[in-house]
Amino acid sequence: MLYEWLKLLHAGSALLSISGFALRGYWMIVENPRLRSRPARILPHMLDTLLLVSAIGMLVIMRANPFAVAWLGAKILALLCYIALGMVALRFGKTRRVRVGAFAMALLSAAYIVTVAFTKSPLGPMAGWPG
Ligand code: HEM
Question: Quick count: other Cβ atoms within 10 Å of Cβ 28?
Answer without folding.
Answer: 19
